[in-house]
Specification:
This protein is an alpha/beta fold. The protein is built from eleven helices and ten strands. Strand 4, helix 5 and strand 5 form a beta-alpha-beta unit. The protein is globular and about 60 Å long.
Length: 332
């Protein structure tokens, strides 16, 4: 009825880009020019794809902190690069350590891809963690592609954005969107923020493969930033309660699970059961109709773990825990 059904600027509507700029500056201390440094994309998945294609040349090595979202390494390969995974381990609360990063850098390394708060582990990086990583990125002249789509889903503290470190500002591509904190998965609205030269290269790819993000989604995203903060904050409080419920329940069942500091996933170990993560996940699905993701599909460091999303009601989580108990008891 209001006529918001046409194409927009390739970059996204000026109103939404302005709102994103204000949001990032006020919330995370990362100011971006809405005209030259922000591109609205078809979800964060597209933002990651065009960011990688904009900076990776054939033969470049791209470091990927894992366990991680499944699209990063294929996108690097499709761009002609060579993905090199860096383990983030349970004993480090699934953070990326400077030592692990240093061991993986070679003369061919071009960039590092990270996702914190992390899918699937719920791991987060504090300012001190990022500053140790920043020293290495600067020393080796590396780019950082930082997927921060779970930034608002941080518990017990505020999200720290690496682009707020002055020496990282000009070498960081920040990815974010509306799918998680604002529960807008189907609207497909993400965004890429980068220095003008990188943003311009990414825009060339975006305008040919997507033209523009859906205008209806852009209108909704602007409204989310304008008037959705209270609902978002209430949802974060609810996620924290769900996190506590499922982590406590999994530990009581003998499935060792660290306390995730962000996102909406628990990542328990199944080592105590004698089953592989795939055997556990497939058996649980077929016998008890509870769906979890084997950690091994999310990176070598995920082997022996399960990704358990708590983006469902507390009643559903209680039922899932009860069914997991039945599954475990049947194998005792």
């Amino acid at each position: 009825e209001q006529g918001s059904t046409a194409y927009t600027s390739n970059k996204g509507t000026p109103r939404l880009r302005g709102a994103i700029s204000h949001y990032l500056d006020s919330r995370f201390g990362t100011p971006y020019d809405p005209e030259e440094e922000i591109i609205v994309t078809c979800g964060v998945s597209e933002a990651a794809d065009i960011a990688i294609r904009a900076v990776v040349d054939p033969g470049d090595e791209v470091l990927v902190a894992e366990p991680c979202y499944v699209s990063y390494t294929p996108c690097v390969s499709l761009a002609g690069g060579t993905p090199v995974t860096i383990p983030c381990r349970a004993e480090d609360e699934f953070r990326l350590t400077a030592d692990a990063l240093a061991e993986s850098i070679t003369p061919r390394t071009k960039a590092l891809i990270t996702n914190f708060p992390n899918n699937p582990t719920g791991g987060v990086m504090q300012e001190a963690d990022w500053r140790a990583v920043a020293d290495l990125l600067v020393d080796h002249d590396l780019l950082l592609i930082s997927d921060e789509v779970y930034a608002e889903l941080t518990y017990g503290g505020n999200h720290f954005s690496p682009a707020s470190i002055p020496e990282l500002r000009e070498r960081t591509i920040t990815l974010n969107g509306f799918s998680k904190a604002f529960a807008m998965t189907g609207w497909r609205i993400g965004y890429l923020c980068a220095p003008p030269e990188i943003a311009a290269a990414a825009l060339k790819i975006h305008q040919y493969v997507a033209l523009c993000a859906p205008v209806m989604g852009q209108v909704a995203a602007y409204e989310a930033l304008r008037a959705g903060e209270a609902e978002k904050d209430a949802m974060v409080r609810e996620y924290r309660l769900r996190r506590n419920l499922i982590v406590d329940g999994l530990n009581k069942l003998g499935l060792s699970c660290h306390l995730p500091r962000g996102a909406f996933y628990a990542f328990p170990s199944v080592e105590s059961t004698g089953m592989t993560d795939t055997e556990f996940a497939e058996g649980l699905l077929h016998e008890q109709h509870v769906a979890v993701v084997p950690g091994s599909v999310l990176g070598p460091s995920g082997t022996g773990h399960l990704r358990c999303a708590y983006a469902v009601s507390r009643d559903d989580l209680k039922e899932a825990l009860a069914r997991i108990k039945v599954f475990l008891d049947s194998r005792a």
